[in-house]
UniProtKB/TrEMBL annotation:
The lineage of its organism: Bacteria, Pseudomonadati, Pseudomonadota, Alphaproteobacteria, Hyphomicrobiales. Transmembrane segments: none annotated. It comes from Tianweitania populi. It comes from the Bacteria. InterPro entries: HTH_LacI (IPR000843), LacI/GalR-like_sensor (IPR046335), Lambda_DNA-bd_dom_sf (IPR010982), Peripla_BP_I (IPR028082). Residues 7-61 form the HTH lacI-type domain. GO terms for molecular function: DNA-binding transcription factor activity; transcription cis-regulatory region binding. This is LacI family transcriptional regulator.
Length: 331
């Protein structure tokens, strides 16, 4: 029967004919090891399928190399993208990531955190639930909060308010002067920031706008579109792509043309927005930048909070307003 035990540094040392310390130095890049010996050690380690022991490293250094990440709800399509970005950042730094789903339940968010603390995590990263109190000072490990600039506890997030301004400027430049804003009905700092940015631009440009709160999902957007009285509105700004895609679906069912009759915008650049017809104009978060800064703070390499710029992604769901002078000139 083959030996299923993990390959140790001592086995590599025996195979190459060097000391265990030499193997350790060759694999970590520390100490004095000739290039020839280092190459032989790494080749042997690869051939023997050597995997570094994180448990052993924790015993030597007193650090677990484990990070905990708690997200609000995996059923919301943005959060798997967040997890992927954090997993890549953690892997690049030789750390392991434990991921927990709060399932939109504050009690479950607390339980996930406690579970991770019991597993000896080195630091905790939390994307907090909307409206659920979360105190990062209440834990014995460093805590990084990924939320919004409107949250005083925020460590790193996208600049959601500037994202709202990007969307609003785009619509103003297309001649839209009567707009429907759709924010999250829940107590979301992110939604509040995005809508505040839209208001900044619309107020300055003299745009008439109305606001309604919806759940941040496809069905809420579709139901709203099916029952909505358009009036003079020429555009809908949704605070989330899931809402915006639902809006487009409902409008198409009603026979409303997008963007000829009504422009639609979203937030987050989800895959849904790229495959809906017409493709959705939206904003994109730099999740890689967010994950890298969060891990740098979590591991003590940097300090302080920051906002990551968002990017406007213009697609076919927006065009000049049907009431604008721009349209009359084109016609």
């Amino acid at each position: 029967m083959p030996d299923a035990r993990p390959i140790s540094m001592q086995k590599i040392a025996d195979a190459v004919g060097v000391s265990r310390a030499t193997v350790a130095n060759a694999l970590t890049g520390r100490g004095r090891v000739s290039a020839d010996v280092a190459d032989r050690v790494r080749a042997a380690a690869k051939a023997m399928n050597y995997v570094p022991s994180h448990a052993g490293r924790a015993l030597r250094t007193g650090r677990s190399t484990l990070l905990g990440l708690v997200v609000p709800d995996f059923s919301m399509p943005l959060f798997p993208d967040f997890v992927r970005a954090f997993e890549r950042a953690a892997h690049a730094q030789g750390m392991a990531l434990l991921v927990g789903d709060a399932m939109s339940d504050p009690a479950m968010q607390t339980q996930r955190v406690q579970d991770f603390l019991g597993r000896g995590i080195e630091a905790l990263i939390v994307i907090p639930l909307r409206g659920a109190p979360f105190d990062p000072e209440a834990f014995p490990v460093p805590v990084v909060v990924v939320d919004s600039g409107a949250n005083a506890a925020n460590t790193i997030s996208s600049d959601h308010r500037e994202g709202g301004r990007l969307v609003a400027r785009h619509l103003v430049e297309l001649g839209h002067r009567n707009v429907q804003i759709l924010r999250s009905a829940a107590q979301s700092y992110v939604s509040q920031d995005r809508v505040a940015g839209m208001r900044d631009v619309f107020d300055e440009a003299g745009v008439v706008y109305r606001e309604d709160g919806l759940q941040p999902d496809f069905d809420s957007g579709r139901d709203f579109a099916l029952g909505w009285r358009m009036g003079d509105a020429t555009a809908i700004c949704a605070a989330y792509d899931a809402i915006a895609v639902g809006i487009i679906s409902g409008l198409v069912e009603r026979g409303v043309r997008v963007p000829q009759d009504l422009s639609v915008t979203g937030f987050d650049d989800l895959i849904w927005g790229r495959i809906v017809s017409p493709p959705l104009t939206t904003t994109r978060q730099d999740l890689t930048s967010i994950a890298e800064h969060a891990l740098a703070v979590a591991t003590g390499r940097v300090s302080g909070s920051r906002l990551s710029p968002m990017t406007l992604v213009v697609r076919a769901s927006t065009s000049v307003s049907r009431f604008s002078s721009c349209e009359r000139k084109i016609a």
